[in-house]
């Protein structure tokens, strides 16, 4: 894991605070796993070479870790949202489930070792977490902040 890349740091710093320290930490951890995947995908994205067998295997284990961690985080978040009676919980749960499906799709493409869609997959991988945290997670953060200050 390395967070030396300026582009990655910039993306990380654009991720919003959701007002719940353990969820902020989970988001950071998820982002770090995504960076691990991005660094492997970046080797092929320059178009200079194909990924080797070892790199496909590394990418596959990074995906396993990402999916496992995302599932744990999503379950914890849903539990908290349910216990606080968040009105948009059903939507939030649907979005989480869709993301897991998309991550499984990604994993499947990786296990097929298909170079064809790598560029597109790489872009999606970098975007999904930020999009989710900065929109749907931020929505619950704002809702709970409004309740506290009401
Ligand atoms: Fe989250
Ligand atoms: Fe979420």
Bound molecules: fe (ii) ion
Reported by name, the CATH topology is: Four Helix Bundle (Hemerythrin (Met), subunit A)
Number of strands: 0
Instruction: Name the helicity range.
Output: over 70%
Question: What's the alpha carbon Rg, rounded to whole Å?
Answer: 16 Å
Summed up, the helix count is 5
Q: What is the N-to-C order of secondary-structure elements (H for helix, E for strand)?
A: HHHHH
What is the global morphology?
Answer: elongated
Roughly how many Å apart are the termini? 42 Å
Description:
This protein has 150 residues and is an all-alpha fold. It has a single domain (19-149), classed as Up-down Bundle (Four Helix Bundle (Hemerythrin (Met), subunit A)), CATH 1.20.120. 79% of the residues lie in helices and 0% in strands. It contains 5 helices and no strands. It has helices at residues 6-13, 21-45, 53-83, 89-111, 118-149. Helix 2 (21-45) runs antiparallel to helix 5. The longest helix is centred in the last third of the chain and has 32 residues, at 118-149. The radius of gyration is 16 Å and the shape is elongated. The chain starts with 5 loop residues before the first helix and ends with a helix. The mean pLDDT is 92. The protein binds fe (ii) ion (FE2) (2 copies). Residues 77, 92, 96, 132, 136-137 line the site of one fe (ii) ion. One fe (ii) ion (FE2) binds next to helix 2, helix 3 and helix 5.
